[in-house]
């Protein structure tokens, strides 16, 4: 595909489903269909509820057996779900439905392809769908407005971008909702009695893994970096799952012009005839791109005279006092999708002006003695951490946690000149420490040794302990010992949190509390 103004290679007018082509629309033969739903989270609950409404015979499986799950199970039984199997003992095989094999499995995003139930279903040629696949096949509820789908994925920035996109659409006067991986299941959106003009759909690689048929108006990949390798099995498989988002797109495939790999993903996709490749960049945009000219965000894609003109969308000052490069990139991606859906430049500017960054994403926590303390606990991989680290110089970096199979060498090589001290939390951050020793040998590092390492100090043991709150308090205390004016203490772990915390949010709150304690001492 030529990325500068030409249409994509023509494909079939509309890709037809290869798996159960009869299951399309609300009047399809859902009644009596034997379905297993794996996982009783928000998407699993929505899938089970929807299938029961359609008259399918449904059995739900979930490995947890807590009070909340039991209440949800009882609710599902009341709406017609045949059975809900709770507990790890039900995870080893695919259950029968009414004494017979299932016709369909709808799985929650967290279920890996090599999990026993999913592997068994595929071995027995039973279709495995995501909740998104089910929603797309159904379409809007009869009598409701059929929405245009605007879908996006990426290693980082998905929630920020989909939130901005929703705001742009709403300010344009459209009835729109952000849904998918952001928390509202797509099934809940398409079952709305009135319907929506547009859906702003955040999709994870897990959801895309189990999605066969999707034909959005516009699609976007924000970025791609090594992540979730443990779940997908390899970076190639992770990339392949992300790339599925471009398949069968109708109008615009939006890619990151600053990351050629995303453009390659567009070039490989089979899209609808007439679909265009639209780039976004934080540099000067070529034709059929959105980008930056001086301090202005501009559109050279969705205007007639794009060869010679650019349309102003917003300015850096519209973001407020802090406009990190990655936030600008996310806004440009959101603007590309919004423009594909017909949103005006004025609505895009208004949404950017109203945007407030969420907690735990480059969140200023305190400023004292000309030192800035930043919480970016949501930076759970090297790519996200790099986006934070590029925004600051003279950094005291608090990092570490579960690495999820990623490699840190590229990150450390890039950001080493910005580092003044590194403090590593996490029960095993030895890989990150090793990378720092190889690629940033002049930067002092505290922590990163295993708890049982006989060469570790007492502080190493605390930082690597399973008590995350204590580890974070120790990390903040160590950071305070080396502070100087103009330093930034940045907690951007580049790793997952579950070794020491219940979630990245809990990790961020521990940092905020530790900084507050330090300020009151």
N- to C-terminal distance: 60 Å
Largest beta-sheet characterization: 9 strands, mixed
- What is the 3D shape? globular
Computed CA radius of gyration, to the nearest angstrom: 24 Å
Average pLDDT, rounded to a whole number, is 91
Q: Biggest sheet, strands in spatial order?
A: 7-8-6-9-10-11-12-13-14
Distinct helical segment count: 18
Structural class from helices and strands? alpha/beta
Strand segment tally? 20
- The amount of helix comes to 25-40%
Would you identify the regions where 5 or more consecutive residues have pLDDT less than 50?
A: 1-12
- In percent terms, what proportion of residues is strand? 15-25%
Subcellular location: Cytoplasm
Enzyme class: ligase
Domain Mur ligase C-terminal: 360-494
InterPro entries: Folylpolyglutamate_synth_CS, Mur-like_cat_sf, Mur_ligase_C, Mur_ligase_C_dom_sf, Mur_ligase_cen, MurD
Task: Characterize the structure shown.
- The chain is of the alpha/beta class and 521 residues long.
- It is built from 18 helices and 20 strands.
- α5 packs across α11, α5 packs across α12 and α17 (468-480) crosses α18 (504-520).
Annotation keywords:
521 residues, alpha/beta, 18 helices, UDP-N-acetylmuramoylalanine--D-glutamate ligase, peptidoglycan synthesis, cell division, EC 6.3.2.9
